[in-house]
Amino acid sequence: MEKVLEILEELRPDVDFENEDSLVDGGVLDSFDIVALVGELNDEFDIEIKPSDLVPANFNSAKAINALVEKLMDE
Fold it and tell me: If you compute the radius of gyration of the chain from its CA atoms, what whole number of angstroms results?
């Protein structure tokens, strides 16, 4: 979880990712942020986030993003 938060904070240092739970639905992260985030997560964790994974529920909070990363690492 710590590495996910670190990546998020590098991407958008102005956001409180530990407490925000509507990153996509609330418009905190835009499509460019998501593309950059997916690239960073893929590289850092050696995973492949597929287009089918790109749903708001997977990216609305740091916890949701971390859960997606853990799920993909287990596959």
Answer: 11
**What is the full DSSP assignment across 11-50?**
H-TTS-TTT---TTTTTSS-HHHHHHHHHHHHHHHT----
User: Residue 7's domain spans which residues?
Assistant: 2-74
The CATH number of the domain holding residue 14 is 1.10.1200.10
**pLDDT digit string (tens) for 34-60?**
999 999 999 999 999 999 999 999 999
**pTM here?**
0.95
User: What domain count does the chain have?
Assistant: 1
Chain position carrying tokens 């710590």: 2
